[in-house]
Each structure stands twice: as structure tokens, then as C-alpha cells.
Amino acid sequence: MSGGKPINPRGTKYEKVEFPVFEFPVVGKARYSYTTGEALGRFLAGLKEGKILGTYCAGCGRVFVPPRIYCSYCFKEVDGWLEAKDEGVVVTAVMSYISATRARLERPVAVGVIKLDVPGRQFDDHFFPGIMHYICGATEDDVKSMRIFGARVKAKWKRPEQRTGSITDIECFEVVRP
Amino acid sequence: MTNRNLNFKHRVAVVGAGLTLFRSRMLETPQELAWLAAKQALDEAGLTLKDIDCVVIGSAPDAFDGVHMKGEYLAEGAGGIHKPTIRVFVGGATGVFVPIAAWWHVASGLCKRVLAVAEEKMSHAAKPHTQYVFRYIWDPVVEKPLNPNLIWIFAMEMHRYMHKCGVKKEDIALVSVKNKRNACGHPSAQLCMPNITVDDVLKSEVLVWPVQLLDISPTSDGAAAVVLASEEEARRITDTPVWIKGIGWTLDTTHWTNRDLAYPEYVRRAAEMAYRMAGIDNPRKQIDVAEPYDPFDYKELHHMEGLGLAKKCEAPILTREGVTQRDGDLPINPSGGLLGVGNPIAAAGLMKVAEIFWQVRGEAGERQVKKPVYTGLAQAWGDLMQAGTVIVMGI
Amino acid sequence: MRRIKHFPEVMEIEAYIYTAGPVGTKWLEALRAGRLTAARCPKCGRLFMPPKMFCPYDFEEVKELREVEPVGVVETYTVVERDFYGEPLRERKVLAFIKFPGVEGGLIHYVKTDNPQMGMRVRPRWRAERRGLVTDIEYFEEV
After folding, report:
1. Residues 29-68 of A with CB under 8 A from C
2. Residue C56: closest CA among B325, B81, B178
3. What tens digit of pLDDT does each residue of C56-70 get?
4. d(Cα B347, Cα B190) in Å, to the nearest integer?
5. Which of B137, B146, B190 is the mutation pick for testing A, counting most A CBs within 10 A?
6. Domain that holds residue C111
7. Considering only Cβ atoms within 10 Å of each terminal Cβ, which end of chain A, N or C, has fewer?
8. What's the whole-model pTM score?
9. Which residues of C touch A46 (CB under 8 A)?
10. Which value does ipTM take for this structure?
């Protein structure tokens, strides 16, 4: 069965530009201005007051944090708002040695997904109120050994006067040492 | 044709495939890359552009090539001028979505012969680095203010998978080693590394633990193309058509912090759709060779499980036992995959479809797997870890 | 009234680098040498400007460039009065689509004239210092 017609892929690779090219600078040309929308606007206003707000669907029981105005599963408007606790457990965590621009960081940072507690409700692994954030108080070894998985963490808030209504009003989620 | 909850008029076959080289920087324009692949696919099928009724184009974000409305732009090189032409786009899953869209053009009876072309030229977004384009994946309100690097999201998925399944980095690195070695048999390959070891992967630069440099596929320029035809036409064109037996695709939510990261539900659902159509109830036994999407090494394992080619958490074991090698019982990514051949996003997915085409025809040369191939599968994945596209092909 | 919160972002890509392909590169090099060329399809004989390495009609590979008499015809034009920000330009600019006899396609370029006309014959005004870009032609002027 082997053999067959050999394919002959073509193309001209280059390493250095030694021929005419057109370089088109972009900086400052594409400035975006995102608005929050309805649900996230209220979510951010809540953060300013030190609260993590979510929405829920009475049809399927799902809780949405970050919130949306609709349940994408039942395809109807959510039935209301609730407050999640500012603590929960680490679902996954990683140690970043690079910045957003791929520069090496002086000190690595831990970041992860936190499954938040909502009083009176239980969530499985398949759908839960969860947000991405920095995790503080965790060592490199805590992350690499995966001890951090399942650890309880609590939001470390900025002081009220420093808050701007942003996800960064929470500095990080701090590991709760028993 | 047996009707398995799907109605279609015509069986569809792949009758030709073409590829460019995959390289980090190519001189050809995106249109020219598309043409190189398209022309080769037509030549292999023994057809000319006049024989083509419709054209399907796939390409990932416009921001890579730096040309807005890339579908329209590529149409000329993809043979789409003065023909019904469409561009499809589901992020990284695009490459396998291209033949899926081409399939429905033919299966519906709308077109008899379709040229399906995928292209990506990531090197255009040159300064400071191509990766920056990915920054626009994040939610601008709740995620971007944290200044994330794209790799975070994959590192989190990989680590969750490792945690849930008790998988070690060494086990995952075996995938990178296998694929970068396999790539040495592929004439398009960008990263053939015949002597790479697990140790090399584990010693490569740590980017975002647990992701290291050699866990990731490179950025690439390249194009791929296939020609699809209806049963009647396919039999006229070739003695060895490769039938498309099943197709499937699904999306999950972009709210990735709300869902299970250890198991790719989007792939499972896409695979179920394709298997139902293909009459496959035991993929592990009925699929002879597979090309799951492997932009990261852990994704090959993750996707094998989503595809039902391994039980949950079993893929690393099969890998360690050599089952997924070219001479193994379930060869996985014999092409070398994205980790080895390269990752010009949409083109990389379609390269996998081309590989299955050649494997089924027994024309994969030194990449030909040892076991006889009756049925093969290609799969791609994309958007915000949410899109799954699956195609099952066979004799 | 509610205050609307905005999250500003600037596209981080600093620059795109576009290459012209094997034939396009030769075409740019010809421009640098002060020559206007078009690519020729070996099968149908059509001439293309700007060139590509393939003929979009019959999908044949195109390798050869032929020199074109640098006298074009204004197919259509527009008069640009304002800049990107809507501010009036100090000097109006005439932007034209210029075709060359026997060549498919053509060039979009500026024409220096106070009296633009469709059908007017124009020729390139070459810059003294050329870099292999379409702007090696500073503008076209009436013959």
C-alpha cells in the first residue's frame, strides 16, 4: 500500500528581508473602546461596592458569574440577580513566567479559575460560577505540585476609595490558610 | 445511502489534495499560497478550474494576514472568481470546517465539484510578534484588564486535565516527541526534529507552567486544498475516491471559566454527530488512523478522549504504550501534526484532512501507517476553547 | 443619565510586513529600476498588473514579466478634498485608476493635474530615490 505519488509542496521561505516589502505601521491607528453592556455594567458596579454579583436562571438553576442578561441554555431572560461570596475554591491554576507581551517576568505570577461559593447552592464540575484571577499567597511549588487545586481562596479587595468598578478592584484571590 | 437522522442527496468523496510548504515566513502572498495548494489539488484530481462549480475558503482571523475580508481577497487564488464562493471561519477549527462546508455544497446537490482551500499567513503580523493578534480573544471587560497572555488559558486547561487524570508532564511530552519525529516524513514540515527527546521538551523554556516552549506548535505560513465531488463525478474522476462518511461540528460557550476544562465536550458532541452519520459505534475499533488537533501536545490527548478514541484519562497511557505511533494499533497524527508540520491555522486543520485522504489511499509514502486503513478521522478545535469540527473519511 | 464605562484598547500589532510574492517582488524591483512591467500568462497570454504568480482565469503559473510602455489612460478618477480626519487638504489630490493598453488591471495612483479627464493619457513621474514600492512613482502627469 505504501509508495504512491509523492506530494511536492511548494513555497519560498525566507529568513531575512532582502527584497522590497511593504511595512505598514499600525500603532495608534486601531483604538477600541469597549462598553460593558448591561449585565457586566452592574457586575462592575457591584465590585466597586465589594460585592460579586451574578444572575440566575430559574428554569435550569444555572448561576452566571460573570453575569449575563440571558440564559443561553434555556434561551430566555435570566430571572434575577444574586450575590456570590467573595471566596471559593481553585479549579485550576498556572504559574506565568511571561507577561502579556511575552517578556520574561521578574517574578512569576499565579493565575487561575476560582469557583465561587453561592450560599444555598451547590455546583458540579460541569457548570459553575467562576472567574479568572490572580492567586496570591501560593508558591511556585504549590502550583507545580498541584496542591493549589481545590484550595480555598478569598478575594483581596482594594480599599474602597481605590476601586474603579473593574475586575482589578479585586487585587487577587488569596489562599486561606486554615 | 442509509439515512441516519440526516437527509442528503449525494454521497461525497475527496478526489484530490494539495499543500504548500509550511514555514515561519514565506515570500508568496496569501493569494499565491492559496493558489499553490489549490492548483496542486486540482492537478492531483486531474481537473482544471473549469471543472469546479463552487469554492469554499477557510481562514482564521483577518488580523494575521493583515487583510480585511480575507475570504474575498483569497477568492482569486482559491479559484473563486465568477463562481459561488464562501468563506467559513470557526477559529482554529476552521481547517476541518472547510471540507464540512464543501460537503454540504455537494451533498445537497447544489454543486458537483467543489474546491476547498484554507490559507494562513501569520508572518505578516510581524511586529512585535504574531501572538499579539490572539489578545483579542479575551473578554475585554472582565479578562483583559488582568493583562493575560494567551497561553494562560491553555496552561489552565492542561493543568486541570493533568490534575483530574493524574497525568505527568513526561507523559504529555511524549506527544510532542512523537509528532516532531513523525514530521520528518512530511514534505511540508517546518519542525522535523528526528532526535528530540522527552528531556528536551521538559528542559525547554517554561512559559506558563505547565506549558513549555516545545509543548507548543510554531506560527506558520501555508495553505492546503482538497477537491470534493459527488459520487457520480468522483467515480468518473478517480478509481480511488475517499468517501466522506461523517461530519460533525459544535460550539460550546465562550464563558470558559464556567465550565469543565478537563474534558472537551465540544469535541465529544461533534464526534457523536459525525459517528452517527458514519455508522460508527465503537470508534476505538472502527477508526484506523486519526489526526486530532494538536496545537499543544496535551490537546492531542484531550481530543483523543473527546473523540472516544480513548477513555477519559486513558490517552496518556495509550501514548506511553506506543499505541499511537505510526506502527501502533491506533496511529495518531502520523503526519507530524501541528507540532511537527506547523500551524498555519486554517491550513493546518485542512492538512490533517489531506493526510487522512492520503492514508486511506495508501499514498502517504514513508508516513503510511503500518495497519491497513479503511477509515480515518481528522478533527480541529478553535475559538475560545469551544469549537469542535470532525470529519470521518474512508474507502 | 448613567455614566457609560469604556474599556479602551489599542491594537498591539506595531506593524504588518507584506511581501509581494516571487513575481510581485520582481515587479517591485523593476519599479525600483524605473521600469513598468506586467506579468504574462503563458497559456492565455493575458498581461496582468499588478502581477501575481498565477493567472486567475486558467490557474496557470505565471513567471514572466514584460515591460509595458509607461503611458496609461485614466479609466476613472476621484478628487480628494479632505484627509482621514475630515480636515480640508491644503491641496486637492486627484486619485485615478490608470489602465495600460493590453494589460488587465492597472494602477491606482495620484495624477497631478488641474483638469482631470477620463481618457486622459498620463505617464509616471519617477522619484529619484526608489525603494521598490508603488510610491517609487511620485505621481502620474499628463502626456
Report:
1. 29-36, 41, 44
2. B81
3. 889 999 999 999 999
4. 13
5. B146
6. 21-142
7. C
8. 0.94
9. none
10. 0.91
